[in-house]
Design goal:
By secondary structure, the protein is of the alpha+beta class. It contains four helices and two strands, in the order ααβαβα. α2 packs antiparallel against α4.
Length: about 80
């Protein structure tokens, strides 16, 4: 059972990382100067039944216009 859960976690992590890359999440935020850090279950290797992807974004200043530009770029992707 533990091996099954570990395989599930590994498969979900690979899927999540492909999705992040395909949609361009990191690239969109980095384009406005943000540092992107994976956190939570994806980072810890425990992405199993609740397949959520959590990131923390760090910028020198909070600029809503730039943030919405990054979000618009992400939301424009079909997935």
């Amino acid at each position: 059972m533990v091996k099954d859960l570990l395989r599930l976690a590994e498969a979900n992590q690979a899927r999540a990382r492909r999705l992040l890359k395909e949609v361009g999440v990191t690239a969109a935020w980095e384009a406005i100067g943000a540092d992107v850090s994976l956190v939570g279950s994806l980072r810890s290797g425990l992405l199993m039944t609740h397949r959520d992807i959590d990131v923390h974004l760090y910028t020198e200043t909070l600029n809503p216009e730039e943030s919405f530009r990054a979000l618009a770029r992400i939301c424009a992707h079909r997935r």
